[in-house]
Amino acid sequence: MSEPERPDAAAFRELDAVIRRLVDELAGFRKRAMAAEAKVKGFEAATGSDAKAGARLAKLEEENARLRGQIDKARQSTKGMLQRVRFLRQQAQAAEK
Prior knowledge:
The structure is a single chain. Helix content is about 90%, strand content about 0%. It has helices at about 5-45, 50-95. The longest helix is centred in the C-terminal third of the chain and has 47 residues, at about 50-95.
């Protein structure tokens, strides 16, 4: 007949299994963190330093504002031309009658 297992031995095996799962999970988190850090470093290398990125962003925003102004001018010019065409069409139709 075998001896009954000590209660502390069963608890120790359960604790050992829990710790092994935690170690595996921690290794997965570490791997993901390292991959994320590598992506960030790659992004920083591609875009330059934070100061350069900030300056580039400011320059792009300035260019965007300038282009919006040009679009507004073109829109107004187009509206003016459309009004002139309508006026000339009305004049031509009135002359035909």
